[in-house]
Amino acid sequence: MENKTQEEASTINVSSLTCIDLANTNLHQSADALKQACLDCGFFYVTNHGISEELKDEAFEQSKKFFALPLDEKMKVLKNEKHQGYSPVLSQISDNQIHGDYKESFFIGIESSNDTPFCRANIWPNPDVLPGWQATMEKYHQEALRVCKAIARVLALALDVDGDYFDKPEMLGNPLAFMRLLHYEGMSDPSKGIYGCGPHSDFGMMTLLATDSVMGLQICKDRDVKPRKWEYIPSIKGAYIVNIGDLLERWSNGIFKSALHRVLGNGQDRYSIAFFLQPSHDCIVECLPTCQSENNPPKYPAIKCSTYLTQRYQDSQVDLSIDKKQT
């Protein structure tokens, strides 16, 4: 308990992150800036991304309408075994947590009628209850995927491979792209293991995050320093927060960092929309040729994307089968 109290005492700073302008025609200049951000902490902002404020605002409004529904209505779209659908409060848990996260969420994948390890037909709220909801989310999903693919091209240059390296069919030509609507509530108390979202790193390649103006997101730039130092990441109007995930850290042989982050609730309702990009489920993730040498051999074994993600999802989820039987 004493160590946790010391850790909380170090949460005093607001972090300053690199901003990447996606309209910059000098891609190598952007790649140099992005490389430094990924060496530092793996978090950065992107601007001039092309997602209109109108679409973003509509997605947030529709998200709020869903979470404002009675619980029994939301439980009609309880998540399936592919994690698509609604997850109630306390259904997701990170390491060293006493309780699950004090957040509820709704998970949307790429629309598919064919079962794959991570895709099937999405679950949607009743259109009579939430008219226009599905169309808004599908449009936002499409736009977020476009932005992530643009960022991936700059990331490729930052890793000293061709700009279209990740565009291959087995990588981002057929990606796993998931969107999670999030609603946080309550007061966090890390000394008691109570979080809006507990400390974790993201599983995949990258995450594109839109937040409202309520502060809560914190990052830890160096997880090995004790006590850990946590810094707030503010929302900037017109910009998205981006962080690289564990799969990209593996691809880069640990050169690029997938940072720990968490969300602390302050008693206010807080909303965000996270878009998670992973390569195709058949993709073999192994050290890039530019990130290894005789003196720096690969640190991680090659692994199939679907194998890796399945284990990570299983480790972070609370079993909701009992809830499903009761609905």
> How would you state the average pLDDT, rounded?
88
General shape: globular
Structural class assignment = alpha+beta
Distance between the termini: 39 Å
Question: Which sheet architecture does the biggest sheet show?
Answer: 8 strands, mixed
Strand order of the largest sheet: 2-3-11-8-13-6-5-4
Topology readout:
Blueprint: H1 2-9, E1 13-14, E2 19-21, H2 27-40, E3 43-47, H3 53-67, H4 71-74, E4 85-87, E5 103-108, H5 133-158, H6 169-173, E6 176-184, E7 197-200, E8 206-211, E9 217-220, E10 231-232, E11 240-244, H7 246-251, E12 260-263, E13 270-278, E14 284-285, E15 303-304, H8 305-316, H9 321-326
Helix pairs in contact: 2-5, 3-5
Short note summarizing the structure:
The chain is α+β, with helices and mostly antiparallel strands and 327 residues long. The chain has 9 helices and 15 strands.
Description:
- It is a single chain.
- By secondary structure, the protein is α+β, with helices and mostly antiparallel strands.
- The protein has helices at residues 2-9, 27-40, 53-67, 71-74, 133-158, 169-173, 246-251, 305-316, 321-326; strands at residues 13-14, 19-21, 43-47, 85-87, 103-108, 176-184, 197-200, 206-211, 217-220, 231-232, 240-244, 260-263, 270-278, 284-285, 303-304.
- The strands form three sheets. An eight-stranded mixed β-sheet has the order 2-3-11-8-13-6-5-4. The protein has a five-stranded mixed β-sheet with strand order 1-10-9-12-7, with no helix packed on it. Strands 14-15 form a two-stranded antiparallel ribbon.
- Strand 2, helix 2 (27-40) and strand 3 form a beta-alpha-beta unit.
- The chain is globular and about 60 Å long.
